[in-house]
Design goal:
single chain, alpha/beta, Rossmann fold, 2 domains, six-stranded mixed sheet, 15 helices
């Protein structure tokens, strides 16, 4: 299990890199996060919902993502409440106190999923959540040491030296643990180091002498990784100034809503050399732009109120008057319509809110969440220079949308029920809306939409290729800078076979158990 001294210490990336290291060495490995709190999620092969980071880790392990990889997902709907998703399905909305009481039931789901993965794979790499030093959360903990103690799992502790105070983080975290928890920590990884390693070595020696535990390695700061963020938007992205932008570059603005979800939708645009993507935070004006994108939201009506309170509705109206283009994705699409109805209080107090009114459609939030992986093509592309630009992505939404605007769809999708329309395009060609997350992930769709927005001769970005290159780069760094044989020694057992890590000595891992005759329907299939 990989735990961290803080949130964003690098747990997700370390697990992803280790998944790729192990799968390269011929080990059947699966990622696992018992409990995740995130608004970035992914749709799995079995039609459920898990944290986005676990989907990335599955890719690193060359697996299709499965709900067992993240059995408990919490999607915050306010500062004190969250939607509780168990085994990929939304079960209830609970405040923090009520969820704490519910944790024994959540632990049962966690152990069920972990048992299936352990039965099907050589190795299960577990990611903790936040920090195990949060002593107020020790009671009924299912995310960190509570889980590790329950399943008797060794722990590696990761700390981010780029934040400063790395030795205090590590020693202080150990000091907050119980004796059995402290004994469970086998050693440390120091992450995001830049500088001369010789200047760090006296500190490493002190840490080993002070704690009696080894430092398994120091990972360098890797610039330019294209990996899905678990949740938070990087501060530097949200706080970028409103001025500037190179000539000939498409200026794209994304307003940061309080409950923005799946902002990974914009990763392909962030990586595009012809795009200047800027997140606009609270209190910031919306600068002149070619394209504005309203993102998904976990609390659409509340986020729409926030948008209006910041004056962004007037900025969007001005943007359209001057010929700018506007895209709404999922919750952003719902905001662009006439009304949003929540009769049962699914995302807050029951009631209705007027939308921005730029598309003639209404949305009602329904009890059942729509979860599906989708593919198709952009509507209106047939017969032009782009052909039919392909789209692939996923849907995660409660809303059911109706209205005349849907007669001019933005996307055509194909599934088991045949071809169906999705979203809408305005008559003047300035506004486009869809329920499809990952709208820009396919290079063909990305290029076509950027040309529609005004970037001439634009091509797309192959986000999958960028992710794969980043995962391999991460794995190469771990193979070069970590003592993998020492760190993964607890995986050895009597039923073993030798393997070789890239650049490391041979090591033995457990052979997968014989699963002949067992029900494997709930276990994640391999990519093959």
């Amino acid at each position: 299990m990989v735990q961290g001294t803080t949130s964003d210490a690098g747990k997700s990336t370390v697990v992803a890199g280790l998944c790729r290291v192990l799968v390269r060495a011929g080990v059947a490995v699966a990622p696992f996060k018992p409990q995740n709190m995130a608004l970035n999620s992914a749709v799995t092969i079995d039609g459920g919902e898990i944290g986005r980071a676990q989907a990335l880790q599955a890719q690193a392990a060359r697996l299709a993502p499965h709900t067992d990889m993240n059995p408990v997902l919490l999607k915050p709907s306010s500062d004190t409440g969250a939607q509780v998703i168990i085994h990929g399905r939304a079960r209830m909305d609970l405040d923090a106190r009520a969820y704490h009481a519910y944790k024994p039931h959540a632990m049962a789901a966690v152990l069920e999923s972990h048992g299936r993965l352990k039965h099907a794979y050589d190795v299960v790499l577990v990611e903790g959540a936040g920090s195990p030093a949060e002593v107020n959360l020790r009671d009924r903990d299912i995310a960190n040491m509570g889980f590790a103690e329950r399943v008797d799992c060794p722990v590696v502790l990761v700390a981010d030296i780029d934040r400063g105070g790395v030795f205090a983080h590590l020693v202080g975290t150990l000091d907050c643990l119980s004796d059995t928890e402290r004994a469970r920590v086998t050693g440390f990884i120091i992450n995001r180091f830049r500088g001369d390693i010789a200047l760090l070595e006296p500190g490493l020696d002190w840490l080993a002498a002070r704690t009696g535990k080894p430092v398994f390695g120091v990972l360098p700061y890797l610039h330019g990784l294209h990996l899905d963020a678990e949740d938070a938007i990087i501060d530097a992205q949200a706080a970028r100034g409103a001025e500037g932008g190179d000539a000939g570059v498409l200026r794209v603005i994304v307003p940061v809503l309080p409950r923005i979800s799946n902002h990974t939708d914009f990763d392909a645009l962030r990586a595009h050399p012809g795009v200047d993507l800027r997140f606009v935070g609270p209190g910031m004006p919306v600068p002149p732009a070619d394209l504005v994108i309203l993102p998904g939201s976990k609390s659409v009506r509340a986020d729409l109120d926030f948008l209006r309170a910041n004056g962004w509705d007037h900025a969007l109206a001005r943007h359209l008057r001057y010929g700018g283009k506007l895209i709404g994705i999922c919750g952003g699409m719902q905001m662009l319509g006439r009304w949003i109805h929540d009769p049962d209080g699914r995302e807050g107090p029951a009631g209705s809110s007027p939308g921005l009114g730029w598309l003639d459609l209404d949305t009602t939030l329904a009890p059942e969440k729509q979860l599906r992986q989708v593919s198709g093509w952009l509507a209106g592309q047939e017969g032009n220079e782009d052909g039919a630009a392909t789209v692939r992505g996923y849907e995660i939404h409660l809303g059911v949308t109706h209205g005349p605007a849907l007669e001019a769809p933005a996307v055509w999708l194909e599934d088991n029920n045949g071809r169906r329309p999705d979203g809408a395009r305005s008559a003047d060609g300035q506004v486009l809306a869809t329920y499809v997350h990952g709208l820009f992930d396919d290079p063909a769709a990305c290029g076509a939409l950027l040309r529609w927005a005004g970037l001439r001769h634009a091509g797309g970005v192959d986000l999958d290729a960028l992710r794969e290159a980043s995962i391999d780069r991460l794995a190469d760094s771990m193979a070069a800078h970590l003592d993998l044989a020492a760190m993964l020694r607890p995986l050895t057992c009597a039923r073993a076979r030798p393997i070789n890590f890239d650049g490391g000595p041979p090591m033995a891992v457990a052979t997968p158990p014989d699963t002949a005759g067992t029900d494997r329907a709930a276990t994640p299939p391999s990519a093959a």
